[in-house]
Amino acid sequence: MAHQKLNRIRILPKYYFVVSGAALSPVSPLNAFDEALKAAGIYNLNLVKVSSILPKEVTYLKLSEEEAATFFEEGEVVFTVQACAIGVGEEYLSAGLMWGEGLDVNGFVMEHELSLPSSKPEPTMEDLRENMIEMLESKFEVGVRIRGIGIKEQKIKTVEIFVPRGMYGCALASLVLC
Fold first, then answer.
1. Which of 4, 12, 32, 171 has the most CB within a 10 Å radius?
2. Is 1 part of a structural domain of the chain?
3. Over the stretch 81-124, which tens digit does the pLDDT of each residue have?
């Protein structure tokens, strides 16, 4: 059996796009997550979280969060590489993705989440974003080296939010494969 091809179901996405959203909720972390999905335009989908490989010859679709909200049928099953930071009052949250399509091979995606407590002096959103980018670049470089692949162009998407006292928050970045 090792030498013959098995007749099996294969799912190989041809397209992808990247969206992000951040939100707060006074009720629960789940509600903050749901609001972040809505802000990203992917809240009426059944999301299946997958690891971080972009198929060979995949095509990037430049969709806004608003366009993503109408791209699929409600309830459709969609695969996603996702970074999601969830926190509670007086925390800074950041979620980010770094990705690149492969040179004649598969591409790669790296996700990272940050949750930092409020401190003195207060970090700025730019500080949080820079910290996220440094972590993504470091992790991405190692992931590409492990796989021994070349990447065409590296791209980054981050989202940051401060969660005030008495609130829950979520920062979400999602690469959607379709």
1. 171
2. no
3. 999 999 999 999 999 999 999 999 999 999 999 998 888 788 88
Domain region containing 64? 15-177
Residues 6+ apart with CB under 8 A from 165: 89, 90
Sheet containing 91-102: give its strands across: 53-54, 107-117, 91-102, 151-163
Q: Are 135 and 173 in contact (CB under 8 A)?
A: no
User: Per the domain annotation, does 3 fall within a domain?
Assistant: no
Beta strand residue intervals within 26-167, DSSP E:
46-49, 53-54, 59-60, 77-88, 91-102, 107-117, 151-163
Token readout for 30 is 């789940």
Yes or no: say if 58 and 15 are a contact pair by the CB < 8 Å rule. yes
CATH number at residue 38: 3.50.20.10
Q: Which residues pair with 77 in a beta bridge?
A: 46
pTM (whole model) above 0.90 = yes
Instruction: State how many domains the chain has.
Output: 1
Count CB-CB contacts under 10 A for residue 91.
21
